[in-house]
Specification:
The protein has a single domain (3-212), classed as Four Helix Bundle (Hemerythrin (Met), subunit A). Helix content is 83%, strand content 0%. The protein has 9 helices and no strands. The chain has helices at residues 3-23, 28-53, 60-68, 73-89, 93-114, 120-140, 149-156, 158-181, 185-212. Helix 6 packs parallel to helix 9. The chain is globular, with a radius of gyration of 18 Å.
């Protein structure tokens, strides 16, 4: 099994551990810290896949420069070429990564629905969004080569990826504080609404890409 896939499995297990700690009302700082690590590992599995396919020629700092978009044109093209090789050599790899993302996200939405922090319709909306978007993108093949401008900006850009992870961290971290420490739920509703809107926009970009890309 690839190291990238092992990282995906590890972050899924970490998210499940976070859910358990929240249920038993363990120290919320620990839960939030572990959740932050799980989110950070999402970027590490991409590095691990590129590092393996390049036989160790891609360093972490070079990869981070690529992620931030601060590389010269030649360096960027080299890493993009390796990224395409990853998709060719391990066609299940990107889907494995997406599956890990979905399990983590569903775990947290289900957790706060089960704990009566969020209403049921929220997770139903999220599941419907992911189901349709994933089905359309699976029919297309992969999201690694986006053609439409809408998808590149709203879904595929580094800013969009960073933004969704930041929103997930802030929202779910605050909801942990709501359940464990009794923080005001109204702020949690606002954050959850913003996150759902962001997720729906990215889903619309995926479906548009599958239809028109």
């Amino acid at each position: 099994m690839r190291s990238a896939d092992l990282l995906t499995i590890a972050r899924v297990l970490l998210a499940i551990l976070v859910a358990y700690l929240v249920i038993i009302k363990f120290d919320p700082i620990v839960s939030i810290l572990l959740f932050a690590i799980a989110l950070a590992m999402d970027g590490l599995d991409g590095f691990a896949a590129l590092h393996q396919i390049s036989n160790g020629r891609i360093g972490f700092l070079e990869y981070m420069r690529y992620v931030r978009g601060r590389m010269n044109k030649k360096e960027s093209e080299i890493l993009k070429e390796y990224k395409l090789k990853v998709g060719s050599a391990y066609p299940y790899g990107p889907r494995m990564d997406v599956a890990g993302d979905r399990i983590i996200e569903y775990t947290l939405w289900a957790l706060f629905t089960f704990l009566h922090v969020l209403p049921l319709f929220v997770i139903i909306l999220i599941i419907a969004r992911h189901s349709f978007a994933d089905a359309f993108m699976a029919a297309k093949g992969t999201s690694s080569r986006l053609k439409t401008r809408f998808a590149r900006i709203v879904y595929g850009s580094n800013a969009s990826r960073a933004g969704i992870n930041i929103m997930k961290f802030v929202t779910f971290s605050y909801l942990i504080l709501v359940y464990v420490l009794g923080y005001p739920i109204l702020i949690g509703y606002v954050l959850a609404a913003m996150l759902v809107a962001y997720i729906l926009a990215r889903g619309a970009a995926e479906i548009n890409e599958a239809l028109h890309g």
